[in-house]
Amino acid sequence: MISLNGATTYLNNSLAGVSKSLSHSQRRVQAPVIVSALSSNNNGPGERNVTLLMETTLKEMREASPVVAVEPKTTTVGGGVEDVYGEDRATEDQPITPWTVSVASGYSLLRDPHHNKGLAFSEKERDAHFLRGLLPPVVVSHDLQVKKMMHNMRQYQVPLQQYMAMMDLQEMNERLFYKLLIDNVEELLPVVYTPTVGEACQKYGSIFRRPQGLFISLKEKGRILEVLKNWPQRKIQVIVVTDGERILGLGDLGCQGMGIPVGKLSLYTALGGIRPSACLPITIDVGTNNEKLLNDEFYIGLRQRRATGQEYAEFMHEFMTAVKQNYGEKVLIQFEDFANHNAFDLLSKYSNTHLVFNDDIQGTASVVLAGLISSLKLVGGTLAEQTFLFLGAGEAGTGIAELIALEMSKQKEAVQQKRNKICEKKTVRIYIRYILMQTGAPVEESRKKIWLVDSKGLIVSSRVESLQHFKKPWAHEHQPVKELVDAVKSIKPTVLIGSSGAGRTFTKEVIEAMSSFNEKPIILALSNPTSQSECTAEEAYTWSKGRAIFASGSPFGPVEYNGKVYLSGQANNAYIFPGLGLGLIISGAIRVHDDMLLVASETLAAEVSQENFDKGLIYPPFTNIRKISAHIAAKVAAKAYELGLATRLPRPNDLIAYAESCMYSPNYRNYR
Known about the structure:
The protein is α/β, with parallel strands linked by helices. The strands form four sheets. It has a seven-stranded mixed β-sheet with strand order 10-9-8-11-12-13-16, with helices on both faces. A five-stranded parallel β-sheet has the order 3-5-4-6-7, sandwiched between helices. Strands 1-2 form a two-stranded antiparallel ribbon. α16 crosses α24. The chain is globular and about 80 Å long. Mean pLDDT is 86; it is low at 1-82 and 427-440.
């Protein structure tokens, strides 16, 4: 008979949850699993613990035929993660039990980042969990902890030191880390992600302390499913994976690219409300071609040249198959910082069989499209009336270009439908259809307004035979042009977009040329980190004489020109992917559709207020990002239901309220 001061039922339910979670393992192990709970009184040492010894025999052997696990029934709370221990079904006022494999207590509780509160443990909790003497006597509030941490963060003069301090905090006190980030998002976003994360990746081998995610290398070929089962969490909903070949604009950083998935998933939680335990960062290590890293004694990855061709394709296929088998069809796999030749192939190959999303191609495109839609309120006209010129024809450039073309086509179709409703005469309708037939497919027509420049110059039809497949749709009739400034003068674009990863390529001559035939030239310098930006905010405003509408990939401070202060926007993917991911999860979507990206862009653009426009901003402030993410999630979920791609039924009546209710809260919970 087990007695836990009236908590017998809770213990039994929790043990069932632990047993259920452990049953997913396919390890050939027969070992006792000890699950203990602590009484809240201070009896003698022999009476402190009530321990239940469960002998669990796992019947699934490793060499048995792989079986696709049936996904267990999930709750709709907390981002859809199964709530084994009742943390989300309880309100924030109700106490919970800090379970690990056993009930965390004493010294182990202070070392558990998921449950540690530091000095915020109450007097009652200190007695119940044997913390007396392990903490100073003072009890502080969560808010005071945040205030203290921000004070400490501001003492660091070097951004990398701030990054390391934030990572240490995440490993020590998870809820304090996320509350700190959420409450100070505009100040800390550049610390936990671009531009600081770029330097962190470059020095990852030197600053590496504790692993944060899974490292899957060629050594694990044929055993990737087994490696995935080593991760302690079973209910994974979002995976961010990189092979480190194209980290931001810094090139091949190999295994040290892990900083990118870790940073992205921190933002999924802080900005999109996805539970931390449902996020899994993964680095695929197939080697590196970076000679500096191969000769670095502190490098933490495989010391060999990159695997390519069939070897690479087979390894990635094993990974994708194992992920789906282990976590089910509805786990979102976000590809991050793969080189162009692999990024497009992976997205094309798996978009019809997995829930996949490439942030460099699709996320960047969506956030840039949002900025363009909102900027039209400053320059006037429609998207179809603009002419676009890109510097850079890789993942980001072609991804943005294609989404712009899709949105232009969508707007044209909407206008045409409106005209058809107005036209009452049959002959007029027939004539309109005839005109449409003569102009070709709408998206192909829209592409003609979009021009791209790569390392060899303007992409034109005379180069089509030598072009990579993803560049061919952008090869238009035009004489060859080598230099960007000559392309600007010839094409006369209204919008200039940089996605080249080549710093300071928007020269004074280029921006002055843009300003010569545009009253308000739209200039987007998107490359990251700051050192790789095509131009700075100061250069854009100064060389355009204050007329440019400017946004960048990495943040720039305010700029004063002729007595006026200009605030530049940041075309940060963090506006899009957290809300997109949340929308996919709450709807139980099984595929990502282009229409979801379009609706995410339109929703973000609608969040820009007149006050923002008056300051020259084409993006809303990050201070409202969780509200923005909830709105994006609701629109994405609605589109998933509309397209028949949602599996979570019935559809909630109020998707915004539902999205907000599913978002993770970093507030401390009371412990029994």
